[in-house]
Structures are given as structure tokens and as C-alpha cells.
Amino acid sequence: MKRSLEEINDLGEAIAVKCYNKFDQLLSHGKPSSNEWTHLAAFVSVNDNNQIEILSIGTGTKCLGGDKQERGTEGCLLHDSHAEVIARRALMRLFYEEILNEHNSILIKQDKNKFYLNKSLRLYLFVSYAPCGAAAYLSDPIKRPKLEHKNLNSIGEELYLKPGKGYATTSLSCTNKINRWIYQGLAGNLLNQLIISSIKLTGLIIQTDKDLSSIFKNIDVICVNNQFSYGPSLERIRPCSMSIAWWFNLSLSSSSITVDGYLLGLTKKNRHKQKYASPLAKCSLFKLYLQLMDNLSSTETSYAHAKTLSSNSLTDQFMLNNPQWIRTDPNIFYAFTLSSSTNSSS
Ligand SMILES: [Zn+2]
């Protein structure tokens, strides 16, 4: 169905308002204080009647450094807590839960362990600001870092690492990550084993006054005016260190809050126990994956091994097109198994 520009812009503004309203309904826990700001990202579905549903929400501004912090964490640590990455992990959680609970409104079952995105739904990613990396630098050239960056591919897309506390992290910018999701779908390699055709975004909705369509190609980019009241401003001068994650299956009073990559309030001795990990951590999503694969009794399966089982031609093609892409080192980041003590609780 062809939609007019006016309809598309109205839809974008309506989605922005709905995302802000949903955020307002969440408990104040994890939200910025009066002099702090944060960013908001949300994955949203729109059906044939233009009904909007918020599937997942993420807030956050922080990213931790790389491999040194990862060792020994048993997949419990969230390195990248930028809003888009949190929202996307929450969306993956929702997908896993949909399949496990056999409640299929978004992912429709074709046959055993084969699913596809409900054909009456379109998926959008909303972000309350221009995503970090090339999109942010096009919006505000003054912020362009002196840090080195690479040309990612033959069409001149730029690869940026996220800044940490005075150093570059090993996490790629949200602009780079979003472009990868646009290309190869949202599900990730593990979940993709169960998905018939990759789960693609219909469009990006960005609160900005700049045209970012040269950065995000091959997708509708809708710019909206409605501003997030918790974004940076003259009063809100410091980034909030906490991240909120919420997804459709949670009540409004039970969002998940992390700080420094761990659940808020977790004592140091419990940080690397998988049963206390954030529901969005690698080990937590891996547990859902093993449940789906009916394989939970096998605690021998390492995350790294599971990743190698999933061959995805879109991933391969993406890597071929983007030879400079920074691959996650599986020997460091994927070197954990699911400990049996996580099996009893969720
Ligand atoms: Zn970012």
C-alpha cells in the first residue's frame, strides 16, 4: 500500500508521542534526575489499521571498554548500554518469549521451530536523537571526533567506535549497528535459526531536523519534531548512568534497570552469577535459546559453539561487503557456557 508523505510524517509524530507516553508510564526508577539527560529508543509495530504498539523500550548513554572487562564475566555483562542496543536486546527477549510461550502475535509459527514476522505488521525503530557515529556527526559536525575512523566499504560508509571514559571502546557506533540491522535483520544469528525470512525494519523514525537519509540507505527515514523531555538541554547537562529496558510482556512497573552493565543494586559477589544477570545479558538470552532448542540439559554447549552453528547468508554477505567491520572476538566474548544453577530460576 502506497502512503502519502503527509501520512508517513503523521505516523512518525504519532509514534514519537506514543513512545514518550509509554516511557512516562514507567516507574521513575532508572530515569534521569532533574539535571541529567538520556536517550530513548523503541521498537514499534504498526498494523494495517495504523494501530501502533510499543514492543520494546531502551534508554541509556553509556558504553564500557572491551575485552579486559569481559573475561570471567560468564556472559553477564552488558558492554553497550546505548538506548538503541538496549531496545534491540529487549526486542530479542520479546521474540524469544513469544516463541517459548506459544503466544504468537508478532512471530507467526509456520511449523515446529520455524517462524516469520506477522505479515500485517510493519516494524519501526524510533530514536529520540540522531544515533551516535556518522548520523550524530552529520547532525552536529562540531562533535566529530578526532579519533581515527575507517572507511567501512566501497560506498564510503564510515566506521566509528563508541567513545568510553577517555578512550575508544570496542563497540561500534549505533549508526553502524543500525545499518547492519537494516541489512541483515533484527533477530541476530542465534534466533535467526528459527526465522524463515529475516525480520526487517520498515523504517527509522528519528527526532532531528537534519536529513539523515544519506546515512541510512535502503530504508524510510522519517524525521520528527516532537522532542523528548529527558534529552540534553540547558538544565539537563549530565548523561544519566542508568539504562532502562522494557518490553511488551512486562508490566509497566517492572522495567529492568542496569548500571555499569549490571543490574542495579547487584552486589559485587553476585555480578558474574548468571542467575542474577540482566534479562538482556548474553547468558540470559542464550538460556532462552537453549530452551527453544530443547537443549537445556546440555550445559556443555558454549555460546561460541552455538554461534558457529548458525550460518546466515545475509551475515556472510554483510561481512563480505564490509571487510573493515570489527568482529567480536569469540575467544573472549563468547567463551562461556550456561551454568546449571541458572536453570532453576528465570
Ligand atoms: Zn549510540
TrEMBL record:
Matching SMART domains: ADEAMc
Record-annotated membrane-spanning stretches: 244-265
Pfam families on file: A_deamin
GO terms (BP aspect): tRNA processing
E.C. no: 3.5.4.34
Keywords recorded for this protein, A-Z: Hydrolase, Membrane, Metal-binding, Transmembrane, Transmembrane helix, tRNA processing, Zinc
Obligatory cofactor(s): 1D-myo-inositol hexakisphosphate
Domain A to I editase residue range list: 56-206
GO MF annotation list: metal ion binding; RNA binding; tRNA-specific adenosine-37 deaminase activity
Organism superkingdom: Eukaryota
Reactions the enzyme catalyzes: adenosine(37) in tRNA(Ala) + H2O + H(+) = inosine(37) in tRNA(Ala) + NH4(+)
PROSITE patterns for this protein: A_DEAMIN_EDITASE
UniProt cross-references to InterPro entries, sorted A to Z: A_deamin (IPR002466)
Function (record text): Specifically deaminates adenosine-37 to inosine in tRNA-Ala.
Similarity comment: family membership: Belongs to the ADAT1 family.
Record protein name field: tRNA-specific adenosine deaminase 1
Organism whose genome encodes this protein: Rotaria socialis
